[in-house]
């Protein structure tokens, strides 16, 4: 029985998980997915780069069928703003490669600063026509929301323990297809967006009480196969473990495979992975893993749920990278999956 699956970059380059992990000294923390057999990224010359000079890109599928996103440390899409923002906004319509993007101005939501000195989004979600955003670099993180599609924003409570770089679990358009009436938030278990921690933690809140800190519950383990939740953040327990490799992340529900996808950046040096599970808290298996992707210095890996094909096997990855490698931008790279026979039935 094989321990890991094959990962292919482009048409001609194939890497076996087991060989890569042994050479790199970086074993994936969980066994292979029973759904996905291989993950193939289009070759690097096909990568789409827009909004050059901006990065970050937490994103959500809105009720009007657009995608709403936030960029960091840049001037947005073309035509770019005259000023550089720590946090700016944009709306995206259409499907790759022929999508369109428009910058959205919002004095109450835009921030100034650079790198760790500037507040910037880590998670984005629309629920029942309202936008919610987690903002990092504010002393752990802060919840912000908009009732008018990002024109104006209200700044709410802050987490003061853990949850330094949180992201929402995104389902379909306007939160369609959600498993229950809760909204789920994930984060590496620490106060900073710039440190790789040992674990990932999880919180949930009723979707009609997202702005109320007292309504949040934290995953505190399992009992009899069911999740245990606590209002005490100190009682939180890990839902994912990979010591020294849990940094920035995103989470989506894959509606065809009926699996939760945790997309986890290990660092800012092209180490990252995709993990799937039948429940928001696990148990996890490995869809994709590398500590040396074929593009150096990348980070911020995200899959918009709108851009999942009808058969579930084609997705578009959003990522960014370092200036010196040419990927400090809104970068899109197509991912094609091979699945086990009958796995999605």
> Which CATH architecture?
5 Propeller
Alpha-beta content class = mainly beta
Shape: globular
Radius of gyration: 19 Å
Total helices: the number is 1
Our estimate of the beta-strand percent is: over 45%
Distance between the termini: 24 Å
According to DSSP, the number of beta strands is: 25
What number is the mean pLDDT?
92
CATH class: Mainly Beta
Total of domains? 1
Order of helices and strands: EEHEEEEEEEEEEEEEEEEEEEEEEE
Task: Output the CATH topology.
Answer: Tachylectin-2, Chain A
The level of helicity is: under 10%
Low-confidence stretches: 1-25
What about the largest sheet?
A: 10 strands, mixed
Structural overview:
The protein has 345 residues and is an all-beta fold. It contains one helix and 25 strands. Strands 13, 14, 15, 16, 17, 18, 19, 20, 21 and 22 form a ten-stranded mixed beta sheet that branches. Strand 10 (130-136) and strand 11 (141-146) form a beta hairpin.
Short description:
The protein has 345 residues and is mainly β. The chain has 1 helix and 25 strands. Strands 13, 14, 15, 16, 17, 18, 19, 20, 21 and 22 form a 10-stranded mixed β-sheet that branches.
Question: Which helices and strands, and how do they pair?
Answer:
Layout lengths: L5 E4 L3 E4 H8 L11 E6 L6 E3 L4 E7 L5 E8 L10 E9 L6 E5 L15 E8 L2 E7 L4 E6 L7 E6 L7 E4 L11 E7 L8 E10 L10 E7 L2 E5 L9 E7 L2 E6 L4 E7 L6 E6 L7 E6 L7 E5 L11 E8 L8 E10 L6
Parallel strand pairs: 1-3, 13-19
Antiparallel strand pairs: 1-2, 3-25, 4-25, 5-6, 6-7, 7-8, 9-10, 10-11, 11-12, 13-14, 14-15, 15-16, 15-18, 16-17, 19-20, 20-21, 21-22, 23-24, 24-25
């Amino acid at each position: 029985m094989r321990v890991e699956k094959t990962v292919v970059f482009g048409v001609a380059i194939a890497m076996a998980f087991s060989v890569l992990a042994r050479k790199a000294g970086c074993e994936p923390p969980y066994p292979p997915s029973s759904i996905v057999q291989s993950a193939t990224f289009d070759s690097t010359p096909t990568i789409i780069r827009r909004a050059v000079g901006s990065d970050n890109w937490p994103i959500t599928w809105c009720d009007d069928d657009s995608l709403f996103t936030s960029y960091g440390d840049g001037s947005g899409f073309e035509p770019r703003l005259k000023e550089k923002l720590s946090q700016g906004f944009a709306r995206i319509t259409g499907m790759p490669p022929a999508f369109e993007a428009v910058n959205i101005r919002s004095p109450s939501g835009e921030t100034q600063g650079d790198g760790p000195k500037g507040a910037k989004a880590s998670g984005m979600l629309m629920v029942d026509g309202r936008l919610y955003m987690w903002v990092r670099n504010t002393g752990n993180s802060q919840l912000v929301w908009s009732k008018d599609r990002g024109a104006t924003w209200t700044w709410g409570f802050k987490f003061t323990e853990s949850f330094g770089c949180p992201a929402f679990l995104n389902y379909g358009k306007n939160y369609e297809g959600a498993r229950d009436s809760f909204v789920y938030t994930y984060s590496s278990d620490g106060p900073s967006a710039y440190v790789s921690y040992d674990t990932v933690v999880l919180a949930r809140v009723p979707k009609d009480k997202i702005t109320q800190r007292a309504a949040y519950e934290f995953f505190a383990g399992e009992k009899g196969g069911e999740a245990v939740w606590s209002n005490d953040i100190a009682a939180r327990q890990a839902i994912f473990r990979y010591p020294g490799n849990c940094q920035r992340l995103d989470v989506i529900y894959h509606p065809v495979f009926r699996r939760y996808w945790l997309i986890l950046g290990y660092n800012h040096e092209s180490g990252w992975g995709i993990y799937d599970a039948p429940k928001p808290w696990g148990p996890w298996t490995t869809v994709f893993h590398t500590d040396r992707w074929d593009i150096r210095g990348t980070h911020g890996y995200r899959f918009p749920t709108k851009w999942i094909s009808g058969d579930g096997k084609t997705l578009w990855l959003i990522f960014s990278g370092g200036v010196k490698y040419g990927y400090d931008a809104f970068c899109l790279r197509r991912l094609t999956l091979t699945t086990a026979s009958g796995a999605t039935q």
